[in-house]
Amino acid sequence: MTMFKAIDVWKRISDSEAVRYRCFQNLQSGKYSVQSADFYRLPESPAQSAQLERQYVELFPEEAPDERTGTYETLKEAINAHDAEFRSG
Question: What's the start-to-end Cα distance of the chain, in Å?
């Protein structure tokens, strides 16, 4: 069984918005993938935060992160690829 390390990467968008990239590192290959990007706006909504956490947990067993989005040598490459995919889609 393949094991993954979860890594959260945060980016500030403005003084009231941020995005959290839900990343994984495949411990066998050492490569990175982004499962999802969660957007937060102030004022923070506990219900929205709880829903995003549930979605994060539900997505992982459905499909391995590296199968869902591919793998990259660095976290930055994985995040850039995720951003490019969702900008074009």
Answer: 32
Q: Which helix (H) or strand (E) holds 10?
A: strand 4-12
Instruction: Supply 63's token pair.
Output: 């499909």
| 18-84-48 Cα angle (round to 5) | 35
pLDDT surpassing 90 at residue 58: yes
Query: How far, in Å, CA of 41 to CA of 30, rounded?
Result: 32
Indicate whether this model's pTM tops 0.85: yes
Mapping DSSP to helix (H, G, I), strand (E, B) and coil, where does residue 44 land?
A: coil
Kind plus residue range of the DSSP H or E element containing 81: helix 75-88
